[in-house]
Amino acid sequence: MLSSRRSRAKAQKTRHNDSDNSQEASTTSETEDEMDTFNPDNEDYDADVAVGQKRRKKTPSGTATELSQMDDHIKSEMGVVEEIYCENFMCHRKLRVALSPHINFITGENGSGKSAIIAAIQICLGASARSTHRGKSIKNLIRHGHEGNSLVRITLKNDAVGSDAFRPEQFGRRIMVERLIRRDGSAEYRLKDETGSIVSKLKTDLEAMLDHFNIQTENPCAILDQENAKLFLKGNPLDKYKFFLQSTDLYKMRTTYSKIDEETRNIAESTLKRERAKIATLKEAMDEAKKQWKEAQSIGKLEEEFEVLKKELAWSFVAEKEAMAAKMEKKMKRKKRDAEHAAGEYEETKEAVDNLERKQNEKNDKLEEVNARMSENSQRKTEVKNRIREARRPLHNCKAEMKHLTQSKQRAHQRLERLQHDLQKKRANHEAMLHNRMQRNDEMRERIEMKRREVQDAENEVNEAKDSAQSRPQELDEVENRHDNCVRQLREADSETEFRSCSSLFTRIAIGFPNLPSDLSASTSSFPRDICTLLWLLKWH
After folding, report:
1. CB under 8 Å to 162, separation ≥6 — which residues?
2. What topology does CATH give the domain 2-248?
3. pLDDT in tens, 201-223
4. How many CA atoms lie within 13 A of 537 on its CB side?
5. 486 neighbors 455 (Cβ within 8 angstroms)
6. The model's pTM
7. What residues contact residue 345 under an 8 Å CB cut-off, 6+ apart?
8. What is the spatial distance between Cα 102 and Cα 74, in angstroms, rounded to a whole number?
9. Is the dihedral of CA 400, 403, 409, 411 positive or negative?
10. What does the alpha-carbon distance between residue 214 and residue 120 come to, in Å, rounded to a whole number?
11. Which residues contact 25 (CB under 8 A, 6 or more apart)?
């Protein structure tokens, strides 16, 4: 049971980036004074990496060539980890791990620092120290005995072409994420471009990048450390259900929807409070308008006083009473104007209050409608998630089949190119052989022509010898012998030329029909002369 758990723990440290092909991780190192390396001479690490390197050296050259050819056809995806760098982090003084684009295995004895590499990935991508189960505070992750700061850095791929890249105009084809851990417990994020220049120090930009690449550091299916593995193996059904929620991202979705519901309620309540405050202000304005209206109603009393003063005017000095009457009349007109203005303001205020009450009722109705829609959307959300889960299954199967067909097509294309190259080479060889044979035929024709001239000369000599046959019989016999020899040589030369022409014709026929058996083409050297002569006659007739 213990050995099986250890093997599971080792398997859970495996991090794969893409593709079904596997390749061991290659580690680059500096000198002993500058950087720790995975080698047998370093006491901090295991010798398994050296053994793995020896095994890789024993790999057949053909397999290595096939893997390299496959790497050329595989395009790296965005968000793939290329390199991990640690400085004074946990047990590592300086460590640089370069990863391949396929599955990477990091092996070693207990305490060699394998889990520290996973913790470095978590810390650099925004996780807390508690989530790594390696310390209560982030300053506890600084290497023991080191009084300075600690640094972790991760290099991610970010193709500069396509919509999947994260801000390619700022970062380029690589994104370097650094986290500086200080001894006082504070930390600093740095997002750099492919040249090493700092682009941002905000955690919000880091979270935006993680959300863009769909990197979930809290998801145990993405990063599973030893403590979470033990909890999963020994936990009760409730813990395993929580593990399931985190793995399927349902817990995060539920939390997000809860926050959305809470923010929606807060916005609705704050809007309701503001509108109620406006209503209270408008009510105060309405009360003030009512007060002015009441003051305007007091004008009637002034009119009564005016009548009294008019009566008194008859019993007083005319000039003084007229002046007082004029003043009272002006005052009365001014009060009437104020009363009319107050009445207009009262009507406007009353209309505004009615509008606000009507808007408040409409907003209350909308709020109830929004709550009903939210409950309905929650049910639809569950149905949509189930449909998405079912729809993704045939998509994954189609992608795998498409990848297999693409690889088969590439192999067939390569084989076709090789066959075409061989065919062109064979045709070139046949054409060269045909050219050589034609040259030889030309030489033989020249030789035949020479022999014919010699025969003609011999015939001339024979004719001359016949004229003097009576006197020179011995010379005649010699000339006739020479004539017979020349005729025989001429016939042999003609026969040889006919045979070579037949062979050349048969070779051209074989080139025109590449499907003929190879032994039939090779048999032209021993082809009977009479058949070759027949073919030659057919050719010219």
Report:
1. 78
2. Rossmann fold (3.40.50)
3. 999 999 999 988 888 888 888 88
4. 7
5. yes
6. 0.39
7. 289, 292
8. 10
9. negative
10. 19
11. 97, 98, 99, 100, 104, 105, 106
Summarised one tens digit per residue, pLDDT across range 419-474 is: 888 888 888 888 888 888 888 888 888 888 888 888 888 878 777 767 765 555 66
Structure tokens at 490: 């001429």
State whether the Cα torsion 452-457-460-464 is positive or negative: negative
Rounded to 5 degrees, what are φ and ψ at 156? -115, 150
C-alpha torsion angle, residues 384, 388, 389, 394 (rounded to 10): 150
CA–CA gap between residue 273 and residue 363 (Å, rounded): 12
Distance, in Å, from the CA atom of 523 to the CA atom of 507, rounded to the nearest integer, reads 10
Distance between CA 318 and CA 191 in Å, rounded?
Answer: 96
- Note whether 96 and 35 are within 8 A (CB): yes
Amino acid letter at 394? P
* Count of CA atoms in the C-beta half-sphere (13 A) of 538: 9
Question: What angle (nearest 5°) sits at the alpha carbon of residue 118, between those of residues 112 and 121?
Answer: 135
Residue 75, classified by CB atoms within 10 Å of its CB into exposed (0-12), middle (13-18) or buried (19+), is exposed
For the chain, the structural domain boundaries read 2-248, 256-400, 430-540
d(Cα 325, Cα 20) in Å, to the nearest integer? 108
Tokens standing for residue 353: 């209050």
Three state DSSP letters for 275-321: HHHHHHHHHHHHHHHHHHHHHHHCHHHHHHHHHHHHHHHHCCCHHHH
Length in residues, the chain: 541
Q: Calculate Rg over the CA atoms of the chain.
A: 52
| DSSP E strand stretches across 60-107 | 81-89, 92-98, 103-104
At position 199, the amino acid (one-letter code) is: V
